Amino acid sequence: xxxxxxxxxxxxxxxxxxxxxxxxxxxxxxxxxxxxxxxxxxxxxxxxxxxxxxxxxxxxxxxxxxxxxxxxxxxxxxxxxxxxxxxxxxxxxxxxxxxxxxxxxxxxxxxxxxxxxxxxxxxxxxxxxxxxxxxxxxxxxxxxxxxxxxxxxxxxxxxxxxxxxxxxxxxxxxxxxxxxxxxxxxxxxxxxxxxxxxxxxxxxxxxxxxxxxxxxxxxxxxxxxxxxxxxxxxxxxxxxxxxxxxxxxxxxxxxxxxxx
Length: 260
What we know:
It is a single chain. This protein has 260 residues and is an alpha+beta fold. It has helices spanning 32-42, 72-84, 129-133, 154-158, 164-167, 204-218; strands spanning 2-10, 19-26, 47-53, 56-62, 67-68, 92-97, 100-107, 110-116, 121-122, 139-142, 147-150, 175-180, 186-192, 197-200, 222-227, 233-240, 243-248, 250-259. It has an 18-stranded mixed sheet that branches. The longest helix has 15 residues, at 204-218. It comes from Flavihumibacter petaseus NBRC 106054. Belongs to the PhzF family.
């Protein structure tokens, strides 16, 4: 069987920036084990698969080791490929996922993802959290996906040097560290050794947690965010009730075929 495969850098307008995702359009679903094998072979933080369903699409995301319920940058990459490579003409794309309906819109500003908000609540630090981050403490919050640690400054976020073996023991999808930004409204770094990704370059799903938190802290709903990974990412975000809107762009890196 021959399948098309694309790689696009998401949440960036520069090649080799943002977060790369592999995009595999399908006519019908492959077995779960085969999609996981393809994601493992791609060895990117996410491989996204989608299947046309009437006027809409079904969508699923896999890290090299597990399937996840929500992924922002790979959804942006898939939308970018639909618009630029697969002839999708409408301004709106509707993806049905394990996190519900995700509506994508295209405008002059970029591609906007409409995702469910995932507000964090205060919690206690589990074993290995602070030790895994190599810090002495911080305010801890919990969402349905991740733990989130609030630090004092952007410099503290930049200085983190996690012990990923220890951090992988934290019982969650991963760990987000955040602080008020020096220039951006807020900054973050996102660690997912539990899911086969030590540090994710740009994490859309993490911003469904970060945006409602910082909207409350800063008293505004329009927010500019920076993820401080080596590749870096910039997101224009908005909180609309129980939804988070994230706008970004993507750049195609690779177009090819795979044989399975």
